[in-house]
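User: Before I run my own analysis I want an independent prediction to cross-check against. Here's the chain; please return only the structure tokens and, at the end, one sentence I can use as a sanity check.
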Amino acid sequence: MRYCTQCGQAVQLRIPAGDSLYRSICSACGHIHYENPKLIVGCLAEWEGRILLCRRAIEPRLGFWTLPAGFMENEESSLAAALRETREEACAIVEAGTLFALVDVPHISQVHLFYRGALQNGEHRAGCESLETRLYAEADMPWDELAFCSVRFCLEQYFADRRRGEFAIHQHTLQPLPED
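Assistant: Structure tokens:
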């Protein structure tokens, strides 16, 4: 950040009084600009033992498969965001379930939340951010074509829990992938 969003003057990177982290602080009006992680929320929607996936029509990871998910909006609960994203990306209505996975992705300042849910009537189709949607059984899951490590973690935990016959809430922190 170079300029203040409040008054347009230049900002300086300093540690404000009572804080321990560098922040962009306006040299004119003194406004402190806090940058916080983004919340990505989605739904692990099941229908007759299969999981709903979307093939991405946008970057990042265009053409790869993911759970329906996206950025949480202001004035929206995380569950409402998961259900909205599922409607937008897969044109699917889901009966809300419980929080299933929380994945911290600190190297890109994100937190990913996934809820379990039951796909209503088995109906789904591609929304504007998806090329196609499909229901996958565990044996047919496109593991090598998944868009994100957080989605892989969520699916692995889901199938392990289902085999055990008991679902839990899972938390994980993703580390940056090693560079080639």
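Sanity check: DSSP finds two helices and eleven strands in the chain.
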